[in-house]
Amino acid sequence: ARSCFEEGIRVDPRHVAIYSTWGRAEGIGGRVDDARRVFRMGVEKGHADADADKDGLARVYHAWSVLEARLGNEDAMKRLLLKAYQVCDSNPYVLLGMGNVAMGRADYQDARCFFAKALQIEPENEVVLEIWGRLEVKCKNYDKARQLYQRGAQVNPRDARTYQSWSMLELSLGNLDEAKRLAETALRLKARDAMLWNNLARIEWARGDYSRARALFRKGIDTNPSHWVTWDAWSAMEWTIGNWSVAQRLLEKSFSVRYRLESRRTAGTDSTELLGGARNSHRPDVVGLGPMPGGAWPQQEPKAFPADFAEEHLPQLGEEDGGPGVGWGAGQDGADFSADSEADVTESLYVS
């Protein structure tokens, strides 16, 4: 592959965007140092050649910012993204990234301006529409968010992320039938996504069908044993309905996964102390699920566990499951480089 990239640069030295694709390929392979070297070459070439394609140079900066964000280097990501914007302020994915950085600092009006400009350039960019919808949900502009999701679904009826976010909006508003319909649509489009199984399970939980919710949580974990969000959500459900020992076991599995996947972020933190804190204050909102419809989490009597979901039959997390599961592409330093398009990468990076 490298020889192909090198040949492309030899044939058209002004086509700086080749360095973007080349660097991303190195990153996907987990060769972080090589990726940085390629991006640096592209940046130097782009600035040295007055005839170089500025949009291509912006793509190099943007791809490099994506790499640094994947590695948890947020400051480097922001600096590189700003460079990309300064070089070319008309690249829709650079604008999308700038909008999401603005969202991260709660500057929602600035974020809207970036998203609007991106849509002026690409009116049918479903990624921008979906993330703008999330912004409006944050601001509690639910009708506006729904309009953006509807428009995104019209633009690309096969974009699972749009249906996913839309279904979570309807769940938060208590529109459970609509939420279920949208979540099932997303799953039909992307059945190998653990988060989509998790979301549908949460909807069944809200509907009070705990057996169905358990089956869906389990399907998500079967899809990706390393998806700790699903372990957390399942644990939260069992806790709220009184199955405390099961909830504790599920939470322990979640922490086991997290300490393997996020060892750098948890370095120096005692896992027993963290787990104890979670044990003492384990509420669903603590694990990032937010309030259920109506604002109150249900507190029911313990529900009998069906035989096929008895504690001893919970999915077992062996040592071999500690690393990335189906759908993951772990590279150097545990970074995940599985996204296979610029849209997927941008969407997953800059949205908190």
A few lines on this structure:
This protein is mainly alpha-helical and 352 residues long. Helices cover 65% and strands 0% of the residues.
Tell me what you see in this structure:
The protein is an all-alpha fold and 352 residues long. Helices cover 65% and strands 0% of the residues. It is built from 17 helices and no strands. Helix 8 (126-138) runs antiparallel to helix 9 and helix 8 (126-138) runs parallel beside helix 10. The two termini are 34 Å apart. The model is unreliable at 266-352 (pLDDT under 50).
Strand proportion, as a percent range, falls in: under 5%
Rg on CA atoms, Å: 22 Å
Succession of helices and strands = HHHHHHHHHHHHHHHHH
SS element count, helices: 17
> How can the largest sheet be summarized?
none
Low-pLDDT sequence parts: 266-352
**Net shape:** globular
Oligomer: single chain
Mean pLDDT across the residues is 78
- The N- and C-terminal alpha carbons lie at a distance of 34 Å
Task: State the share of residues found in helices, binned by percent.
Answer: 55-70%
- Alpha-beta content class: mainly alpha
